[in-house]
Amino acid sequence: MQALVMLLAAGGTCYLGLLAAAAAAANPGQPNALGSLPAHRRQKRDWIWNQMHIDEERNDSLPHYVGKIKSSVDRKNTEYQLKGESAGKVFRVDKNTGDVYALERLDREKISEYHLTALVVDKDTKRNLESPSSFTIKVHDVNDNWPVFTHRVFNASVPEMSGIGTSVIQVTAVDADDPTVADHASVVYQLTKGKDSFDIRGPGLIVTMNKHLDRETQDKYEVVVEAEDAQGRRGESGTATVFITLQDVNDNFPIFTQSRYTFSVPEDIRVGSPLGSLFVEDPDEPQNRKTKYSFVQGEYRDTFTIETDPTHNEGIIKPIKPLDYERIPQYSFTIEATDPTIDLRYLGSTSPKNIARVIINITDVDEPPIFQQPFYHFQLQENQKKPLIGSVLAKDPDAAQRDIRYSIRRTSDKGQFFGITKKGDIYNDKELDREVYPWYNLTVEAKEVDPSGTPTGKESIVQVYVEVMDENDNAPEFAKPYEPKVCENAPQGTLVVQISATDKDITPRDVKFKFSLSTEDSNFTLIDNHDNTANIIVKYGYFDRERAKVHHLPVLISDNGRPSLTGTSMLHVTVCKCNEHGEFTLCEEVAAQVGISIQALVAIFLCILTITVITLLIILRRRLRKQARAHGKSVPEIHEQLVTYDEEGGGEMDTTSYDVSVLNSVRHGGAKPPRPALDARPSLYAQVQKPPRQAPGAHAPGEMAAMIGVKKEEADHDGGGPPYDTLHIYGYEGAESIAESLSSLGTDSSDSDIDYDFLNDWGPRFKMLAELYGSDPQEELVY
Asked: Rounded to two decimals, what is the model's pTM?
């Protein structure tokens, strides 16, 4: 077949030339179908060569002979040439003989054919003697390649428990040889590992061979696939590994981890709170664990519920109503764990271990009192005091059965209208007005008390709703304020205003109000419409504004209650001037005619009363201040006498700054001098006179002690004045001091070398210092 193809390719040029010559002979001078110019009559020359093909990967020595190109041109001066991309590189031609050679070994898998152009030229002129002819050199395939997998490792998955023949994955190996050559590129697959559970069919399709592939037993399989061609050629890359993972299906029942569960919970556990958890084992993956917990035979399903935690697949037991230790101290029931989403096709038999026994022990706690009703509703007639409106009752649910004491929270009874007895009887201390508060919401507390009456701390509350019933205690009145006006020239029968009434009491549907005028006005009349309205009309007509600009009509309104009540409402009709169209042009203000209202009078009175009270308080405060000042003159002043020495004074001869008679009187046993008044302030510079120095050896024991004792006794027996402190600074330190005086003023001699005679020149103020520190002339004479 290849030889035929090459032959047709070689003779293509000759055939085209014959067609062109025939066309030119039939139509001389006319363009032919193969060109636009008439064909030239010349002898046709043909290319003459063998078929061009070569086997790949030849093992003989290079170059390899491919074939021959030859033209019918029979000249000695001809030369053959090759043109093309591979000419001179891969192929060359003998320019004299036309033999074509391959310069290298060819690989069909890289290039399967080469396209070249053959030329025959004159050796000297290099001019083409024949038209160039294109030809193809094809490379024949040899089976030199083995199948190669597209991947060395494949990953696949298949649901567990799949039927035999279920497709898993298709693997592919490719052989680079020519597929048109028989058995060169065909691939044969086989399993070398994992053939117990899987098989490979057809073009690399791996299928299951075992319908009992259980993920919980083995979840991963390794399968090795080998590929070879029809001639049994295979290489290192002719094998591939397939990792098959079994996908989980819900094919396992949940199984309790234990057959008995015991819980202990206090009886006051909140409804809906978890009290315990039930655990099961399910080998399926979490997304396939859909455990449902249920009670067997409906035991206590009205007391507890079991919810499934989707995260941990555990059953959480919760109470759905309050528990009571005194009523049921223990609950015992059987539960079952199932999975409604399980695929029953994969189950061999139902597991017998999916039930368990649950025991819940209720522990006793000190509970608060429990009211017999969730709330109480009582009715009370208004304007009445009743010793018993209603009773509430609470009991201690515990076995101790403690006594209960009741009270009303003051925050719910702000008006302090109600009271409650120890037995829970509610009464009202004050009369109630339904028109003020039609309902009262009371919060009643119940507390447990011990035998001594001391509350134990446990308490509960209940709401008590007291409805105040209505009675006919309010007279009817106008439904709204009216400001009627009438023209002074209004004719008889003119409608002035239509009035209606209302009642603060509960108005029944069949209420009937009756209207009438308490006094017959000379020019107004009232007509009752018998529909709870009435019309005020002009009786005679024509009013005199000079005589009365406002008419006051007292209207009596009665209801049909039991007993019937009648109220009086004042209607003020203003007489106005009107134009010819009946429009009001001038009207007086009703307030100006009627006068100041009662509300305004009350406001004015309150303002005057407030001003009067403030004035009296100011006067009283001033009077109290004056009395306090007058009384304070006889009270001894709490003061201190502060003596400062930072300014120059008159020395010890200045005895006018401080009254030393206080000390002298004490020392000589004199009478107590009068205490200075509060406003008699001592001088800023107060100084006591220093007593004369005593001769050495002369002591006056106890003088200071006696003085202090006398002062203390006077203070203890002085009840006329408040306690006070007086600070006295003494220059005399007393004779009982062991160290005597530490002042340099009291020394008889001085070891100082300083001459103090200059003090005599400083004037009389320093005379005393000059005498103390100056030199004695007589002593100087003795020495």
From this structure: 0.41
